[in-house]
Amino acid sequence: MRLFVTFFVFSNMWYISTLSYFIVDDLSGKGIDNAVLYHIKSGINGAGIMQYKYLLFISLLSVVLLFITNIVIHKLKNKYQSESVKKQYLYLIFLIMFFSATTNPLSMELVKQNISIKKQNSKASDFHDFYKSNDLKKLSKEKNFVLIYAESLEKTYFNEEVFPGLVENLKKIEGISTSFAKIGQADHTGWTMGGLVASQCGIPLIVPNGNSMSGMDSFLINANCLGDLLHSKGYFLSFLGGASLEFAGKGKYFASHNYDEILGRDELFSLLDDKSNMNSWGLYDDSLLSIAYKRFLQLQKSGKKFGMTVLTIDTHDPDGMPSKECESFIYKDGSSQILNSVYCSDKLIGEFFDKIVAADKEKNTIIAIASDHLAINNSIAETLDELERNNLFLIYNSENPEGELFNKEGTTMDIGPTLLNFIGYDGSIGLGRNLLKDKSLSEEFSNFSDKITFWYDDIAQLWDFPKINNFVSINLKTRKIYIDNRSFTVPILIRLDDNLNTKLQFQEYRSPGEKDLYGHIQDIDENQKILYADLCSKVGNVTKENLKGFFCAALGQVRNSSEGRYFEGESYQISSELILTKKDIEETISSLH
């Protein structure tokens, strides 16, 4: 039986890993790309899983059929049992282990991604020569703004030869707006959170190597983003989105960057007239934009400077989810649901735009419309890939309703600083540039993707790790570790330097094949000071102790000897709460050899 179980595990390794790869590839269209890795790390809470129900069902069915096939093989093996058959099983196990590890696309893609991330230029980084985080300079009268992120609704849909009449409303808006025709997509920006961070912070969404960042208490807190800059000028900032704020850390991002009002699926639900009018992600766009318009009127009435950001959802890949208002509003013969969704979204955004313009009596509101990213492997991906693909980005200024087209090359990282110019300010945001007067870095560098890889560690540092100034507390009731006034999730591995500066690593939502915290401890340099909090069994593996209880911690360092690695320091069994003062930590560290 043991032989069969071993054979069963390894004989199916290649199949399961290959199936996993093709599931991911079907979702992303690009195998395991940066978007996939980010969502594995940040989790999928709040995602519209039911939108992929058929793919999940087929995948589950194939695994069940594979299991049944193996049971049949096992029964046949028992019927013709012999020593030669056993040896053949052993040979097959080793052969399949090797074949699975070296040929399946999942492992090969993960290796390729890891190599790409670690590839660094040997020269000193010039990141801060190009990253800008300066104060705003007032250019003219300050204006309010409405920024509409149209989910996956890229500029490519404007191609009249391929999609005649698909986005007539947006084309009309473009005709009276300043439009940017060549907004490309830089690495690490091709999904919703990547697009939001790129357009608001002017940087790609990068997290430190081997780290989920899901346990952080803030989101890129050291980055100076659009919300931070405008908050400093007295703007009230509001975000409304139909999907859950939990998904991909969206709510944490806006909270970390000075948005005063952050409303997602759960917060907006009570405002729905029809509570059943929901899709697998959250609110349909007809409901979302109706609520957003009412909120716009309230903000306008307040008399304060404000900015409202709205993120739609109906055009989400793979097929979109047209609002109920568009049940009879279909594109051509209605055979393509994603095109029906785009057609519907164009109608709804057009109506929302018209209502904002009509209500803006003082002509003091800028309206910007942008796709958050290019469409990701939707049902017409092959058609889109045959065309020149660019993101949508246009800005309407009611005081100057004359269309102007810019053909300058740019990326979504240039959206924020360009928008600032229309609001009444001059300023740079991260790696983004004002396309009205400056050259985009994507145009300045022919190898911009390589440059982003080179700047990987610099960008990752913007997440900000704390210094221990007073104490560290681990509380089992809250499942949190507190470093002075900041809180993080456990399990956690904290690397300490002599001044008690920290670097945090979390274990949640690891990528397939990615090391857990114990694995990272085995790789750290000798004499590196650490504080490790995890299940007692795992901490005991590090300290080589039989620790009792549920949760434990270890403070010390890993050393090498002729017999292998060993831990030197203190271990703690936590019953409810462990508190270590700065003095406690310093005394333990100073006692180490």
What's a quick, concise take on this entry?
This protein has 593 residues and is an alpha/beta fold.
Helix and strand arrangement:
Blueprint: H1 2-11, H2 13-28, H3 34-42, H4 53-79, H5 83-103, H6 105-118, H7 127-130, E1 137-138, E2 144-150, H8 168-175, E3 178-184, H9 192-201, H10 226-231, E4 236-241, H11 250-256, E5 261-263, H12 265-268, H13 285-302, E6 306-311, H14 337-359, E7 365-371, H15 381-385, E8 393-397, E9 404-411, H16 415-423, E10 425-426, H17 441-444, H18 448-454, H19 456-460, E11 471-475, E12 480-483, E13 486-489, E14 492-496, E15 502-506, H20 517-523, E16 529-535, H21 536-543, E17 551-561, E18 564-574, E19 577-581, H22 582-590
Parallel strand pairs: 2-6, 2-7, 3-9, 4-5, 4-6
Antiparallel strand pairs: 1-10, 3-8, 7-8, 11-12, 11-19, 12-13, 14-15, 14-16, 16-17, 17-18
Helix pairs in contact: 1-5, 2-5, 8-14, 13-14
Task: Work out the radius of gyration.
Answer: 27 Å
Range of helix content: 25-40%
The CATH homologous superfamily name of the largest domain equals Alkaline Phosphatase, subunit A
- Can you count the helices? 22
Name the CATH architecture of the largest domain. Answer: 3-Layer(aba) Sandwich
Mean pLDDT: 85
Strand residues, percent? 15-25%
Taking the sheet with the most strands, its summary is: 8 strands, mixed
Number of domains: 3
Shape designation? elongated
Order of the strands making up the biggest sheet:
5-4-6-2-7-8-3-9
Number of strands: 19
Distance N to C terminus: 50 Å
Q: What is the CATH level 1 assignment of the largest domain?
A: Alpha Beta
What is the third-level CATH name, the topology of the largest domain?
A: Alkaline Phosphatase, subunit A
- Judged by helices, strands and strand pairing, the structural class is alpha/beta
